[in-house]
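Hi W., the heme C complex you wanted:
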Amino acid sequence: MTLLRIVLKGALVAGALLLFPGPDARAGDADAGAKVFKKCQACHSLKAGKRRTGPSLHGVYGRQAGTFVDSKGKTFRHSKDMKAAGEAGLVWSAEVLAAYIANPKPYIGAMIGKKKAKTKMVFPGLKKPADIENLVAFLEPFASGAQEGKR
Ligand code: HEC
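Structure:
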């Protein structure tokens, strides 16, 4: 490869990264993210150990996928596929949540060698990167366990 081609290729790669940045977990607007969370809150509480249709997202960062235990000590009935993803090494973090919520079932599927996982979360995902960034910014204090939600 000539030097010119190397430089051009580098510029192309940098351009592609600028055009399609991954969701940046720390660039979002938490107030806007609170609105996005309305899509989640019917099923997910931000109170510690509170179960709804889905597990609480309080303190979810650092938790192995599919291992939620509620405040009464009752293990959540996760799907086999969500548990398998956890056993395959899936641990929640801001980055993992951002990637998951863009495409929930295929993301879990990729962890366990299936095209699409069968999980119990009936939610198609968030398509707009800005929604994801804002949601992740809003969730940070709750998901890290620093703060508890009122509901
Ligand atoms: C209709 C109900 C519903 C909605 C809406 C929903 N979820 Fe879920 N979610 C669930 C259920 C049920 C599970 C458990 C899935 C399983 O075990 O297969 C889950 C699992 C999760 C998990 C994994 C938790 C763990 O402990 O492994 C995360 C993270 C999550 N949801 C985030 C979100 C976010 C963020 C939103 C909103 C953008 C959302 N969910 C919307 C029902 C829902």
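The chain has a mean pLDDT of 89.

W.
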